[in-house]
Amino acid sequence: MQNKHPTIGNYLLRKLKSYGIDHIFGIPGDYVVQFFDMIERSPIQHIGTTREETAGFAADAYARANGMGAACVTYGVGGLSMINAVTAAYAEKSPLVVISGAPGIRERTEGALLHHTGKNFYTQQRIYEEITVASALLDEPFTAFNEIDRVLDAVYWHKRPGYIELPRDMVSIHGAVHQRPSTGEHYSDPEILDAALVNAIAFINQSENPVILAGVELHRFRFRDKLLRLAEEKQIPVVTTLLGKSVMPEAHPLYLGIYGGAMGRTEITTLVETSDCLIILGAFMTDVNLGIYTANLARNRSVYATSDKITVCYSTYEDVTFEDFLDGLCVPQLAKRPEANLEWVLEVSEPFVMVPDQTLTVKRLFQHLNQFLNDELTVIPDVGDSLWGAADLRLPEQTDFISLAYYTSMGFAIPAAIGAQLGKPDSRPLVIVGDGAFQMTGTELSTTIRYGLNPIILVLNNQGYGTMRPLVEGPFNEIENWDYTCVPELLGAGRAFAVRTEGEFDTAMKAALSETQHFVMIEAELDKLDTSPALSRLAEQVSKKV
Fold first, then answer.
1. Residue 2: which residues within 8 A CB-CB, separation 6 or more?
2. Are the beta carbons of 38 and 10 closer than 8 angstroms?
3. Which segments of 162-285 are extended strands (E)?
4. Widest pairwise Cα distance in the chain
5. Conformation bin of residue 372: beta by default, left when phi > 0, alpha when psi is -120 to 50
6. Residue 107, exposed/middle/buried by CB under 10 A (0-12, 13-18, 19+)?
7. Helix 190-205 crosses helix 322-329 at what angle (to 10 degrees)?
8. Residues paired with 378 in a beta bridge
9. How many Å from the N-terminal Cα to the C-terminal Cα in the chain?
10. Rounded to an integer, what distance in angstroms lies between the CA atom of residue 520 and that of residue 510?
11. pLDDT in tens, 256-301
């Protein structure tokens, strides 16, 4: 009698597709090649990268742009190579599903020494249990479908990575009918929700100068519209964390800028730290978001709401969903604020005027770059002064901002551009990357050629690790200086410019925006000791701690 249930491999692909995943990033290997063959015959497209870690970075950015992402690798050398990228996704709450092939269940006999195996057959899964919200070894046909549903459900709701290990002798085995429904609903306890809202609304209403500090969870849970509604209906000004940048339209009159302790502008710091009611929504209180703990935020004047819990001053409420709490603030009981004078906070910059023959500086480069931003771009800065400088960009309403602004792993941005563009095909990535980070993962430009993608890559070449120099200078900050303009010749496609002056940069950016067939790389040659204003402010404080 023919089995009416799908195979475990096909069921997994069907479930991934149901979550809107149309691409899987990864590199094949013998433990997972059968599943790769299934991918090729499925509606999901495999995207091959040059190494496993970059597959993880690309899938992470795809998840941020699309809502959920997936990567697939072989056992050991593949799965363990992805650990840094998956840890980054866990730290920054990115819903990434990792699928790893593995030795077959029948192969796992005592004393068997199979290639790619470390300490024992269960080492990799135990490692992944530390950096995922849920994990499963699909070792039993009767429970496989349930386990797939359990992991995907956890990834969807918690916006953190999940791990599925697929032994090669289970890929084509038919599973049993699953016993549990797919992604279910999460509900608040009505009494606890009501108590939290009553307390929060009373606290906000009695305050004189409330401010919203918006964070990355508003991105992850797609709550940008809820934030905008709350701010506009109640006329409460908004600042964001660095990780939450672009969650509020930056041209909006209620948006004031980024709060980051010593990293941010003095006016923003003063506004936030003197507020008698700071409404923190979906923000991670990390050292980077808080300017390496140079921030000064008092719990007794804060409402703090995340997907984990709700806190009003010293009262904590669990069993309340983030969404219900946000919706519950948009009620008539929460008073609309009188119009406040915030002109002293707003940054009034002199209009940028290009000086064609002037040598590039970091500060003026980002001011100049700001003039080229449009709604069709996604800004993806790498770690270092690429990130600190980009913090001061004023983004158009529809421009997304994707960064590892908490975990801060170098080499993220170029592979992230692949995932971001596939996840949001109507947007073009603008990558800002230092020369050090480019040398880590720049080979992924070959992947952009393979799949017809067209990122703009701005390489800030300051001949080394510029973020470290203000802290401790030494020969360990130096790297070999490449001829970056030769990259298109090496890869057989693309276009590159080397620019030293503002006029050359202007010409190169205009050419990059008009050239849409493939990647365009602009190497900006900068003084090795030049830094952005944000990094200068931050380094002054951090150097005291290092």
1. none
2. yes
3. 162-167, 210-214, 238-240, 255-258, 277-281
4. 79
5. alpha
6. middle
7. 40
8. 400, 429
9. 69
10. 11
11. 999 976 667 888 888 898 999 999 999 987 555 454 444 557 788 9
